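ok here's NADH-quinone oxidoreductase subunit F, seq below lol
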Amino acid sequence: MTTTLTPVLTANWDRPDSYTLDAYGEYAAAKKALGMDPDAVIQAVKDSGLRGRGGAGFPTGMKWGFIPQGDGKPHYLVVNADESEPGTCKDIPLMMANPHALVEGIIITSYAIRASHAFIYVRGEVLHVIRRLHAAVREAYEKGYLGTDIFGSGFDLELVVHSGAGAYICGEETALLDSLEGFRGQPRLKPPFPAVAGLYASPTVVNNVESIASVPSIIANGADWFAGMGTEKSKGFGIFSLSGHVTRPGQYEAPLGITLRELLDMAGGIRAGHQIKFWTPGGSSTPIFTDEHLDVPLDFEGVGAKGSMLGTRALQIFDETTCVVRTVLRWTEFYAHESCGKCTPCREGTYWLKQVLKRLEKGQGTEDDLTTITDIADNILGRSFCALGDGATSPIHSSVKYFREEYLKHFEIGGCPFDPKKSTLWGEQ
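and the structure came out like this:
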């Protein structure tokens, strides 16, 4: 538990030139890493306890260690910068304000896994970020930090910034790899996993932007320094994105294990005159929490023990003026639109969830419809080809669990209780 922020990745964000190489520095961590044995770099990341910052929380060093060595195949590093989860907004500002942390992390990671080619797969819509990444990569090439014989170590690395086409499904690592190869972005059957047969059927590591950008500070300051923050099983710091009905929304870099109550204290609390109603601990694909969860430690274990997931630490805050049913409908419309259609449970399930929720939101449903949407969600959960389907069920199950009465109120008054034409926040019609 802490009320202290730990600005590392965000330390220089207030500098107008933070995105330049002059402001960032001379890649000292990369130079140090390239003087180490690659296996020692992997061990340092393992010892730090860094877990994937893209949502799943898998140990980063362990993931690197899965790459087979001496197999005679090329190895690849792919950075997943296809940030699309509703409410998630940490990687985009990170790449805008501090792209060189990512580039330096890519050099270190590629060296550790013996990869001579790396790719940054970034959303095509964020043109400003793409331009900034290209500028950062160009600066690194000009300084000799990328290309051949980096720091005289004999290590060569080519880095490519690749623009995606704006599909949410390409945030799933195997769909991203298919897209990167020029195919339609759809998830692959696993196994084989990317560590064995990833990009171009070769061993590949796919990591989130924040995961890779955290590596230089671990190498520079030591594994113990990083492990000294956070909690026993969720070590280090992370960027918490507060959005919605909060006084000062933004990015708050803090140790894992901090609580929403503590973050809200630093963010000025809920907007004046209102109180929190529900919130997401890790974006819309994680089960929602309510005001009773304000003191839950925001780490992988603490959030999981209370029935949700830490995910991407996208803390969407909603006050008492928000209709839960309408919010869940909006999220479900997103998942139905972004389903790639490859598997039946997700393709059909998200469509029918959307149809029933529309009826519920208009007050035209019945209590039996609550059973229907939870049954549909049950038939998607664990049966879809990838995690998109599972994520779509999270707001369904959790909203019915915590706000069943609000769903019922829609039936009673024949519309949304938050619609002034029907009633005023649960008042009389």
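fwiw The mean pLDDT is 94. kinda neat tbh
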